[in-house]
């Protein structure tokens, strides 16, 4: 037979430091503590990532390029212009020393 004390997760938030007579943690308490802990970890990860701003900038540029393509899609030869632009961009990046 399994006893109740064996079923309780002793590492659950609020249970480990519980003193005699203190109420058991509720599901809401444990959930709140879990979300708080993971939110802090997520914020630390985002702040620690030095590439975060770079990726955000690339995404903004990507969105601008898509917007421009959609704007001129029916007025110009977008395929040719896009190809020419990409070749020029690749040449500029290679001159700067970036490998693609």
Structural overview:
- This protein is mostly helical and 100 residues long.
- Helix content is 65%, strand content 0%.
- It is built from four helices and no strands.
- The mean pLDDT is 79.
Helix content: 55-70%
Poorly predicted regions are none
Largest sheet: none
Estimated structural class: mainly alpha
Q: Give the rounded overall mean pLDDT.
A: 79
> What string gives the helices and strands in order?
HHHH
* Approximate strand percentage: under 5%
Short description:
With 100 residues, this protein is an all-alpha fold. Helices cover 65% and strands 0% of the residues.
Comma- or semicolon-separated keywords:
65% helix; 100 residues; mainly alpha; elongated
Topology:
Blueprint: H1 4-7, H2 27-48, H3 52-72, H4 78-95
């Amino acid at each position: 037979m399994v006893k109740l004390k064996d079923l309780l997760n002793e590492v659950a938030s609020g249970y480990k430091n519980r003193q005699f007579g203190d109420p058991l943690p509720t599901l809401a308490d444990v959930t709140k503590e879990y979300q708080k802990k993971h939110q802090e970890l997520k914020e630390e990860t985002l702040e620690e990532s030095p590439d975060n701003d770079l990726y955000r900038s690339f995404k903004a540029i990507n969105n601008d390029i898509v917007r421009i393509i959609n704007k001129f899609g029916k007025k110009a030869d977008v395929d040719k212009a896009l190809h020419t632009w990409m070749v020029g961009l690749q040449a500029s990046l290679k001159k700067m020393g970036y490998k693609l």
